[in-house]
Structure formats: structure tokens, C-alpha cells
């Protein structure tokens, strides 16, 4: 479970986060939906303790990230954007490296790596160096890195960006799989179909603030629109109206 | 601890596969001793004159005794014309090639009244014609002058004895010189340069890895991912320092091995001393090199983390690396030697030079400079640990 309460963060002249609060529950896929520059990545980075909020706090399984960053991060897996692959390592080495950094012993890390490679069907590329990988292959490697240590919470930053249909489907299947195993999945996106198809809960963000929270259908009902996209526009537009 | 091992292992695998990092270390470690050897060989060739000094002697027949004396001392007639006159034509023609090749542009003219003057116990005239501004000739000119002086003294003594006077009357001063220079200490200067290249290898070998693992890591967006994992910035900083230091020490080991082999090909004996990279020296160099490598790693990582990009880090480091270069160079050329004994890099350099000269190790100076080296390393490491908690550094803002 990831809980964010009253987060505020100013970066330069921009109020990136503005009293942001939400909860992402275990066994659910939570989508962080917002236009470019809404503060999605800033919010995720704050959850990881990479950015210090001016006010408010982020908790993972009840552990305050600011107080016990190591303990909190132990419960997290991150699928970053951009991926941050090491081009000179093979996926097997790369995944195992991060498994060990997440606290697995050398032996466990090796085992977990083999399992996740099998799970994501990475065998054909697992011992080739990452240099020259396609976007889909990169995505799979990064995803394997995020879930290799079986964290209870998985955070994905714009996971479907630049992926083809096959890769997107694979990603979707894995996220649903994780959800069914009781993991808490939180991802940011600005792609409506994806959010509509996957999410149990959608958090609509704009200008560092939560505009609306609910399941896709709830959001549609709330705004009186047929599709999530229409609802989204309505929500953002309303927000801009208020801000003006 | 496991995490640090995992990180160091990954850094080393990553670095070993990075051609740029490996090449930077290898080129320097292998190339420098070879270049130094070449330089030393040229240097030695210039310093030592050939055994036989061949000059042009005009009118040798006027002073056969002097010519014999000089030829005993290795100064011989190289004049073909004169040789023709004196010796058989056949001999001259066989020596022709060698004579013209080694012939120095020095002409010694024996005056026509030499024999007469000598017989009368007067000053017989010898004229040396040579270009004194030619540095290559100066050694030969000095040598000729010395021998002529010796001959002159000998003649003078004989004349005094013939007149019943003890020649020692003419030598009111009796100067004894005890040359304390051991053969090894003469090579100290040359070794100073050699040691400098070895110490500097620590800075060069790890440099590319240091940039790659800090500024490069951020440029590839993996730094934020790394810091998102449950590890402390201290673990991160330590593992990077260890990896870079190991790489730097690898460069040092390599340059020591190459030097040990390469320096045996330099004809040191012509200088009257030998330069030996002994196993003891190699061991001492390695031990002394460890703190220097740590400091080099900390310095390079610190600067590269401060830089926004790989290129920026490279240009900063080139400037920063001038400081140890200057310290080390100053130590080998003995500029302001007193203060430098206590400073990092130059202190170690001087201690190593003393060791190779066969003197006692200046333990106190070595200790102080080693401790100050380590202190700088620790300070830089703390600085890095602090800076990696800052958002500005992590995201290169």
C-alpha cells in the first residue's frame, strides 16, 4: 500500500506538487493520470525519496520514506522512465545486480533472476548485451528489474511509452497478474485506453493537485460523460476553470 | 556489505567491457614506460661520449710524444690526410669510413716550433679550434683539455725533477674528493621522472571509469534508478571509490611490470650506474600507491558528480589533474623540496626517490603525506555522500 498525504513541492518557480493526497491499495492497479507537466513523475520520485517534499509525507506499507528510506524502498520496485539500462551488461547481469541491491542474497538473486527471465520470456535475449535492444526488449528488461525481488509495491513511470501492441499487451498481462497476486501497482500515464482498460482506481492530476479519484466508470458517471477521455477533459477543463 | 560487493563487481564488469575506460588505462601503462625508455636511450647516447675521441691533429710529427700520450688516453688522430702520411695507405683506407663518421669537429694544431720550444724548456704552443657553443662537442673539448693539462703537468714535473726540485712544490693544495654518490643515486633524477610517470598512472588509469560511473551514470539515467533502491548513498559512494581505485591500481601494477621489463633494455651501464626496478621497490610503490589511488578516485568521482555531463566532467578533470601533476613534477625536479616532502603525492614521490637512491625511507614525511592523502580522500568522499542527497546533483539540474 502506498499512501501519500498533503505532499507539496516547489521546484524553481513551479509548484510541482500542491497538497497531493491519495492511497494506492494492495491488490489494485492505480493509475496516475494527468497531462504533461501535471507532476506525475515528481510525485513518483517523491515516493522514492529522490525528492524531498516541502510539506507532507509518503508512506509505503506504513513506513515513512523520509524517516526510513531503506526500509520503505525495500518494499518498492521501480520501472523508471527512461529505463536506465546498462548497455554493456546482459539482461541477466542487469536484473541480478538490482536484485542484489534490493537485498537478495547472491544465491537468491540468481534464482529470482532465472525465474523472472522465464516469466517474461526473455530467454532469447537474456545473455546478449543490452546495447542495440529494441524498445520492447528494453521495456521487458526494465520490468524484470522492477519485479525480480517480488516487491509488494510496484511503481511504473509511463510504462507503455513507445511500445508496440505486442509489448503493451504483455505489459498489461503482467500488471494484471501482479494485481491478482495481491501486489499494489501504481503507474503514471497519459494514455486513456490503457488506464481505462487496466485501472481499478484512477487518480486524475493537474497542476500538482488531485482533481478526481475513482474507478473509470465512476469518473464517467461523476462527469456525465460516456468515455474516460471525455471525463478527463471535463475534469481538467473544470480545474483550469477553477484555477482561472 | 553484500550490496557493496555487488556494486563493485558490476562496476568492474561494466568497466572491463568499456573499451574507452580500458584503453585509457592500457595505453598509458604500456606506452609510457616504452616512451621513457626511448627518451633515456637518446639521453644516454648524448651524455656519454664514445670511448675513442677522434679529432684532427695538425702537424702530429712535431710532437710524437704528446700524440702517443693522447692516444693512450683514447684521443686519436682521425685525420685521413695525416693518417695517410703517417701510416700505410692500406690501413688508412680500411679505417676511412669509421674515421670520417666519428670524427669530431675539433682541430688541435701543434705549432711548428713545438719541438724546439719543448727542448728549450719553454712554453710550446697548442691551438684547439672548435665551436665551443656546440653542446654536443663540449664534453669532447673538456676531455681534450683535461688530457692536455695532465700532459702539461707531467712535463712540468719532469722538468722540475731534472732541475732537482720536488714537483710537489708546485702543488700547494692537495684536494681529495670523496664522491659519496652511489651508482644508484646518480640515476635518481632519471628515476624521479620514471617514478612520476608511475604515480601519475594512478590518476590516468581510473579517470575514464570515474567519469563513466558518475557523470555517465547520470547521463544514462541509471543514477536515479540506482538511488531508488534500498541502499545508502554511503554504500554507493564507497563502492564507486573502490571500483575506481582498483582500476587505478591495476594501471599501476601494469606500468610497474612493463617498466621492470622495459628498463632493462636501456644501456644504463654507460652512465656508470644501473636502474633496477626491484621487487622491493615494486612492493613499496604499490603500498604507497594505494592511498594515492583512493584519493585520485575520490577526487575524480567528486569532480565528475559535480559536472553535468560526461564531456563537462572530462574538461574539468583535465584541469584538476594538473595539481598532482605539478606536485609530482616539482618533487622530481627538486623545486622547493622542503615543503613538498610533507604534501600529498609529492611526499610519496620523494620518499620513493629516496628509496631508489638507496637512502633510508623518510618515514615521518611519508606518514604525514600518506595521512594527508587519506584525509583529502575521506573529505571528498563525505562531500560526495552529502552531494548525492541533493536533488540538484542526482538529476543534474
TrEMBL record, chain A:
Residues 2-232 form the ABC transporter domain. It holds the Pfam family ABC_tran. GO terms for molecular function: ATP binding; ATP hydrolysis activity. Keywords: ATP-binding, Nodulation, Nucleotide-binding, Transport. Gene3D superfamilies: P-loop containing nucleotide triphosphate hydrolases (3.40.50.300). It comes from the Bacteria. Belongs to the ABC transporter superfamily. This is Uncharacterized ABC transporter ATP-binding protein YbhF. It comes from Shewanella morhuae. The gene is ybhF_2.
Amino acid at each position: 500500500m502506498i499512501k501519500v498525504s498533503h505532499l507539496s513541492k516547489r521546484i524553481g518557480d513551479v509548484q510541482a506538487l500542491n497538497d497531493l493526497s491519495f492511497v494506492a491499495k494492495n491488490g489494485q492497479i492505480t493509475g496516475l493520470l494527468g497531462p504533461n507537466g501535471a507532476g506525475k513523475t515528481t510525485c513518483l520520485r517523491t515516493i522514492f525519496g529522490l525528492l524531498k517534499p516541502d510539506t507532507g509525507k509518503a508512506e509505503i506499507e506504513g513506513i515513512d520514506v523520509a524517516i526510513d528510506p531503506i526500509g520503505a524502498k525495500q518494499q518498492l520496485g521501480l520501472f523508471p522512465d527512461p529505463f536506465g539500462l546498462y548497455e554493456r551488461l546482459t539482461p541477466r547481469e542487469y536484473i541480478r545486480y538490482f536484485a542484489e541491491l534490493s537485498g537478495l542474497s547472491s544465491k537468491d538473486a540468481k534464482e529470482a533472476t532465472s525465474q523472472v527471465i522465464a516469466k517474461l520470456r526473455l530467454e532469447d535475449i537474456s545473455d546478449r548485451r543490452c546495447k542495440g535492444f529494441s524498445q520492447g526488449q528494453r521495456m521487458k528488461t526494465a520490468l524484470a528489474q522492477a519485479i525480480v525481488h517480488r516487491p509488494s509495491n510496484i511503481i511504473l513511470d509511463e510504462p507503455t511509452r513507445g511500445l508496440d501492441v505486442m509489448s503493451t499487451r504483455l505489459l498489461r498481462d503482467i500488471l494484471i497478474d501482479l494485481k491478482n497476486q495481491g501486489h499494489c501497482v501504481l503507474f503514471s500515464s497519459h494514455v486513456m485506453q490503457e488506464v481505462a482498460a487496466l485501472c481499478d482506481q484512477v487518480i486524475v492530476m493537474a497542476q500538482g493537485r488531485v482533481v478526481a479519484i475513482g474507478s473509470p466508470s465512476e469518473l464517467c458517471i461523476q462527469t456525465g460523460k460516456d468515455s474516460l477521455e471525455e471525463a478527463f477533459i471535463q475534469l481538467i477543463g473544470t480545474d483550469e476553470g477553477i484555477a482561472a | 556489505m553484500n550490496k557493496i560487493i555487488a556494486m563493485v563487481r558490476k562496476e568492474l564488469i561494466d568497466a572491463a567491457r568499456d573499451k574507452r575506460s580500458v584503453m585509457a588505462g592500457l595505453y598509458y601503462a604500456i606506452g609510457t614506460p616504452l616512451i621513457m625508455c626511448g627518451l633515456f636511450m637518446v639521453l644516454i647516447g648524448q651524455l656519454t661520449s664514445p670511448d675513442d675521441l677522434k679529432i684532427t691533429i695538425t702537424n702530429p710529427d712535431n710532437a710524437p710524444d704528446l700524440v702517443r700520450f693522447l692516444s693512450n688516453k683514447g684521443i686519436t688522430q682521425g685525420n685521413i690526410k695525416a693518417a695517410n702520411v703517417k701510416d700505410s695507405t692500406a690501413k688508412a683506407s680500411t679505417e676511412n669510413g669509421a674515421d670520417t663518421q666519428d670524427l669530431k669537429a675539433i682541430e688541435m694544431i701543434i705549432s711548428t716550433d713545438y719541438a724546439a720550444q719543448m727542448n728549450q724548456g719553454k712554453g710550446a704552443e697548442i691551438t684547439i679550434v672548435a665551436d665551443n657553443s656546440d653542446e654536443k662537442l663540449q664534453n669532447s673539448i673538456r676531455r681534450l683539455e683535461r688530457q692536455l693539462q695532465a700532459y702539461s703537468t707531467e712535463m712540468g714535473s719532469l722538468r722540475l725533477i731534472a732541475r732537482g726540485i720536488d714537483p710537489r712544490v708546485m702543488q700547494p693544495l692537495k684536494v681529495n674528493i670523496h664522491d659519496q654518490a652511489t651508482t644508484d643515486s646518480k640515476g635518481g633524477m632519471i628515476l624521479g621522472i620514471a617514478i612520476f610517470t608511475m604515480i601519475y598512472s594512478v590518476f590516468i588509469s581510473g579517470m575514464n571509469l570515474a567519469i563513466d560511473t558518475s557523470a555517465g551514470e547520470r547521463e544514462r539515467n541509471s543514477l536515479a534508478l540506482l538511488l531508488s533502491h534500498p541502499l545508502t548513498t554511503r554504500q554507493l559512494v564507497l563502492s564507486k571509490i573502490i571500483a575506481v581505485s582498483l582500476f587505478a591500481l591495476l594501471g599501476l601494477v601494469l606500468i610497474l611490470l612493463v617498466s621492470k621489463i622495459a628498463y632493462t633494455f636501456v644501456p644504463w651501464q654507460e652512465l656508470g650506474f644501473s636502474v633496477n626496478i626491484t621487487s622491493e621497490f615494486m612492493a613499496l610503490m604499490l603500498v604507497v600507491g594505494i592511498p594515492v589511488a583512493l584519493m585520485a578516485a575520490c577526487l575524480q568521482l567528486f569532480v565528475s558528480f559535480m559536472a553535468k555531463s560526461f564531456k563537462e566532467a572530462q574538461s574539468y578533470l583535465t584541469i584538476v589533474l594538473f595539481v598532482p601533476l605539478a606536485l609530482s613534477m616539482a618533487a622530481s625536479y627538486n623545486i622547493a623540496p622542503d615543503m613538498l616532502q610533507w604534501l600529498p603525492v609529492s611526499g610519496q614521490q620523494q620518499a620513493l626517490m629516496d628509496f631508489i637512491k638507496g637512502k633510508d625511507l623518510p618515514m615521518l614525511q611519508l606518514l604525514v603525506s600518506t595521512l594527508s592523502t587519506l584525509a583529502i580522500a575521506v573529505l571528498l568522499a563525505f562531500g560526495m555522500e552529502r552531494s548525492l542527497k541533493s536533488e540538484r546533483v542526482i538529476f543534474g539540474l
